Amino acid sequence: MNRLSRVLIVLAGIMGADGVILAAASAHQADSARLASASSMLLFHACAVLATVALAERTLVHARIGLLAAIGFVTATGLFAGDLTLRQYAGHGLFPMAAPTGGTLLIASWLTLAVAAAWPRRG
Predict the structure, then answer these.
(1) Taking the domain 3-118, which CATH number applies?
(2) Tens digits of per-residue pLDDT, 70-81?
(3) 97: left (phi > 0), else alpha (psi -120 to 50), else beta?
């Protein structure tokens, strides 16, 4: 397993933990739809990162393109969930259009994964 794959797995674990934390916080706060959305994105995409790394490591998808998709999942989910969480707790976001930028990058990352699957396998 290469170093990038290992880092992505660590980040997926952190994303999963953060998703559970935000789910618990949203269950105990009024008007917490932002936290619930952030939690869902973190939990869902933590699994996507793990799956993408596993596919790349087994060369079931083009490894470099697949790992690029996983990096996109981590970055985009951080933007999306980070923006929503800051809006909930600090009253402002990361920067203007951070959540939509993260969402757009998530779409691009899913399409990148599709390209990685369609591309000829490389070891």
Answers:
(1) 1.20.120
(2) 999 999 999 999
(3) left
